[in-house]
Amino acid sequence: MKEIFPEKPISAITKIIISSVDKNTVPDEIPVFLCNYKDVYYNSIITKNMQFMEATAKKSEIDRFSLYPNDVVITKDSESADDIGIPTYIQSIRKNLLCGYHLAILRPKKNVDGKFLSFALMHPRISYDFSRYANGITRFGLTSEVYSKVKIPLPPLPEQKAIADLLS
Predict the structure, then answer these.
(1) Around 8, how many Cα atoms within 13 Å sit in the side-chain half-sphere?
(2) Rounded to an integer, what distance in angstroms lies between the CA atom of residue 18 and that of residue 15?
(3) How do residues 64-88 score in pLDDT, each as one tens digit?
(4) For the chain, how far is it from start to end, CA to CA, in angstroms?
(5) Alpha carbons 2 and 99: distance in angstroms, whole number
(6) Would you say residue 94 has pLDDT above 80?
(7) CB under 8 Å to 38, separation ≥6 — which residues?
(8) For the whole model, what pTM was predicted?
(9) What is the secondary structure of the chain as a DSSP string?
């Protein structure tokens, strides 16, 4: 008999943090590195050895939008609904690496593996759900309620890790 895992809304299994960090360099702010839209869109994994844009941010932005290993970052806004919800897994980071504008951090809660979550978000059904719920005409974006509508199957943590390792 095929085992079916319960589906959980993204909002129930992650802390969702919508970034507002821009690309500006401002005197009197702290130097940071930005993980930008293209970094997420073109890379399924982010590592500390990658090149990132240099910018500045306020201490409050560093506290709120810093990236950590096991985070997942997705594209939140785009010119095409098909480009919404593209994920990347944060494998390792350098100091003061922040999530840039037009992106959302999905910080996994207890018993959720970020690598598994990232792979799950790549599934065609999940991609379809993101594009279906995206709002817009010339520019598309995700509202906060979308994260409670889009659901992923969630096996127990050991199975999540085994699936993610197999897919890696």
Answers:
(1) 15
(2) 10
(3) 999 999 999 999 999 888 899 999 9
(4) 27
(5) 39
(6) yes
(7) none
(8) 0.93
(9) ----PPEEEHHHHEEEEE----S---TTSEEEEEE-HHHHHH-SEE-TTS--EEEEE-HHHHHHHB--TT-EEEE-EESSGGGTT-EEEE----TTEEE-TTEEEEEE-TT--HHHHHHHHTSHHHHHHHHHH-EESSSEE--TTHHHH-EEE---HHHHHHHHHHH-
